[in-house]
């Protein structure tokens, strides 16, 4: 069966795929190595895969920066609040859309789907948020993207796949719509709700632009904006006064340290949640 | 599906039971849609209407919809604005490069993964390749910056090869390469998911038939595998074409700088600087509207063409 040609193909295939793995992982390993390295080793361009001149000063420095922790806490708060709002709105609307008998269902689907292809654009959105007085508030971050239409369609597809008989039976037993949704449908939909929580939470954790656009005060920033300002050189690495002598010395790896600290939560949960994302995406593909 | 299987023909002839549900119960359903509809109205449709400021004089602090009509003044303005045409061509170039390079890569990777017989190796490659998708664009931009900095790995390689260190992010001629490469790095793995799913649904009999007809591996791929995943390819292609002009705005905003504007500045970044930074709201809105309308036309045309030629469409 396995001709030399086939075997050569499999070996080559494995080599290329290993190359893909290396190329994908290298930037991570490089950042981690830099974050633990000494300044002069980095500047000399000697840091690749392993830390050189192991040094934790920068970690101590970043972790002693109050602004960093304030912004980190903001990220957690924004993520939790925004995800909660998104889940409630998406679940309600997806449930309504999944009811095939409902009059006006097509229009309700259309209202949502149209926004995937046409949007008001940056300027009208910016004007709107300012006019609503949401600038420099939590709401500017958590409201404008509360429903992601792709997620909505995934959830709708899931609800449509549930057996209708269960809900009919519950209705016969005297449950109303809210009761059916809360006591019958949601308990059966734990998997999809969990997937949606992950989808939304990761996207809010990673987002920066809405916050960058609508928040002016540094103490309101999420950590992504802190990091962005650091990389763009708009922040002097630290806001604490206690470290003046070290500041210049550690400037080169402070970005690496902040990046590592920002990405750690994602990397920690990634191995456990990755397959849920995958199944969620596939569910969305089956019924788009 | 379940309902279709369980309803015998005789039942189907009666008026559907669910159509006669008491209206009161449906009102409860509609009530669940109220908040989401409010969300769409305020945060999605109001900004669409807000685009009228592209045709009206807008004063900050004044009405959201502008003060008075100025007709096509702002449209004429950008049509004669040389910077606009510069960013327009940059957008087309970056968009086209991204489409040409980042669209086929997941297909190739999916086909390669599909050939892997060792399950654990396959799972491992997949898990690793999805990873960049979960990163914030700020992190990705930061990584790009570190790798390409003068003390970074890429320049270490350049030096090892006997060259001079290049400040890549300061050089306009490098920007497109950097952007497209980082985009490929970030999206290729995640893009394989749908193709791998499509590959598992292909009929084994087709392969057997092809083998009997004397088709080798390459011909099997060409005549069975690729046509099999064509609907997925077309759907994703239409979606990509629809977002063609919205080229990775956030990433470009993070990666570019005045030195690289000649090749890096695209419509969204230009209108961000023009509208938000400089406060020319009406002018910015006119450009934004132009961009959004082109996007809409692109997606509708791509959909129509695909429907007519290969029978796949989004709706």
Strand content of chain A: under 5%
Derived from helix and strand composition plus strand pairing, the structural class of chain B reads: mainly alpha
Q: What is the rounded distance between the termini of chain A?
A: 41 Å
> Strand pairing plus helix content of chain A: what structural class?
mainly alpha
- In CATH, the architecture of the largest domain in chain A is Orthogonal Bundle
Architecture overview:
The complex is a heterodimer of chains A (288) and B (315). With 288 residues, chain A is mainly alpha-helical. Chain A contains 14 helices and no strands. In chain B, helix 4 packs across helix 17, helix 8 packs parallel to helix 14 (249-255) and helix 16 (267-277) runs antiparallel to helix 17. Chain B starts with a helix and ends in a 6-residue tail after the last helix. At the A-B interface, helix 1, helix 4, helix 5, helix 6 and helix 9 of A face helix 1, helix 3, helix 6, helix 7 and helix 8 of B. Chain B: Residues 88-302 form the ABC transmembrane type-1 domain.
Itemize the secondary structure elements and their pairings.
The complex is a heterodimer of chains A (288) and B (315).
Chain A: H1 4-35, H2 39-43, H3 57-63, H4 66-97, H5 105-117, H6 122-131, H7 138-142, H8 149-161, H9 164-172, H10 177-188, H11 190-206, H12 209-214, H13 223-232, H14 244-286
Helix pairs in contact in A: 1-14, 3-14, 4-8, 4-11, 4-13, 8-14, 9-10, 11-14, 13-14
Chain B: H1 2-6, H2 9-13, H3 23-50, H4 73-79, H5 82-102, H6 104-115, H7 119-130, H8 137-148, H9 153-160, H10 172-200, H11 204-212, H12 217-228, H13 230-242, H14 249-255, H15 261-264, H16 267-277, H17 281-309
């Amino acid at each position: 069966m396995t001709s030399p040609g086939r075997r050569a193909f499999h070996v080559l295939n494995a080599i290329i795929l290993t190359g893909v793995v290396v190329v994908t992982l290298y930037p991570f390993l490089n950042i981690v190595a830099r974050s633990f390295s000494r300044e002069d080793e980095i500047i000399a361009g000697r840091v690749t895969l392993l830390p050189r001149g192991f040094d934790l000063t920068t970690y101590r420095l970043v972790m002693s920066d109050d602004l960093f922790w304030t912004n980190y806490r903001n990220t957690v708060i924004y993520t939790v609040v925004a995800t909660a709002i998104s889940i409630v709105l998406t679940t309600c609307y997806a449930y309504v859309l999944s009811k095939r008998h409902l009059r006006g269902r097509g229009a309700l689907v259309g209202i949502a789907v149209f926004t995937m292809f046409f949007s008001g654009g940056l300027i009208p959105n910016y004007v709107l948020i300012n006019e609503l007085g949401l600038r420099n508030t939590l709401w500017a971050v958590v409201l404008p993207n509360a429903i992601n239409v792709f997620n909505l369609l995934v959830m709708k597809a899931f609800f449509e796949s549930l057996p209708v008989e269960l809900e009919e039976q519950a209705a016969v037993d005297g449950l109303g719509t809210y009761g059916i949704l809360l006591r019958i449908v949601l308990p059966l939909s734990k998997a999809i709700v969990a997937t949606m929580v992950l989808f939304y939470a990761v996207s809010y954790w990673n987002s920066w632009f809405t916050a960058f656009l609508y928040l002016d005060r540094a103490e309101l920033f999420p950590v992504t904006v802190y990091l962005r300002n650091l990389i763009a050189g708009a922040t002097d690495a630290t806001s604490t006064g206690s470290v003046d002598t070290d500041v210049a010395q550690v400037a080169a790896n402070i970005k690496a340290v902040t990046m590592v600290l920002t990405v750690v939560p994602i990397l920690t949960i990634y191995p456990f949640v990755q397959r849920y994302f995958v199944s969620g995406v596939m569910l969305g593909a089956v019924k788009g | 599906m379940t309902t279709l299987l369980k309803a015998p023909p005789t039942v189907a002839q009666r008026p559907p039971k669910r159509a006669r549900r008491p209206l009161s119960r449906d009102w409860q359903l509609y009530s669940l849609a109220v908040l989401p509809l409010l969300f769409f109205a305020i945060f999605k449709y109001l900004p669409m209407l807000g685009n009228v400021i592209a045709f009206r004089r807008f004063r900050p602090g004044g009405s959201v919809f502008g003060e008075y009509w100025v007709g096509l003044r702002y449209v004429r303005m950008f049509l004669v604005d040389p910077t606009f045409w510069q960013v327009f061509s940059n957008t087309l170039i970056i968009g086209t490069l991204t489409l040409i390079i980042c669209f086929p890569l997941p297909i190739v990777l999916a086909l390669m993964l599909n050939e892997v017989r060792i399950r654990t190796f396959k799972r491992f490659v997949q898990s690793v390749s999805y990873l960049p998708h979960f990163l914030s664009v700020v992190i990705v931009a930061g990584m790009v910056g570190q790798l390409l900095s003068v003390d970074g790995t890429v320049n270490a390689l350049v030096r090892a090869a006997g060259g001079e260190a290049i400040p890549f992010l300061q050089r306009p001629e490098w920007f497109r390469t950097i952007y497209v490469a980082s985009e490929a790095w970030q999206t290729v793995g995640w893009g394989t998911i749908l193709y791998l799913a499509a590959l598992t649904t292909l009929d084994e009999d087709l392969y057997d038939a092809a083998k009997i007809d004397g088709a080798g591996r390459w011909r099997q791929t060409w005549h069975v595998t690729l046509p099999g995943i064509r609907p997925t390819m077309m759907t994703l292609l239409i979606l990509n074409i629809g977002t063609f002009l919205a080229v990775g705005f956030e990433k470009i905003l993070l990666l570019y700088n005045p030195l690289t504007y000649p090749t890096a500045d695209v419509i969204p970044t230009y209108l961000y600087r023009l509208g938000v930074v400089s406060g020319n709201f009406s002018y910015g809105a006119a450009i934004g509207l132009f961009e959004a309308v082109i996007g809409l036309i692109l997606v509708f045309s791509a959909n129509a063409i695909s429907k007519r030629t290969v029978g796949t469409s989004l709706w």
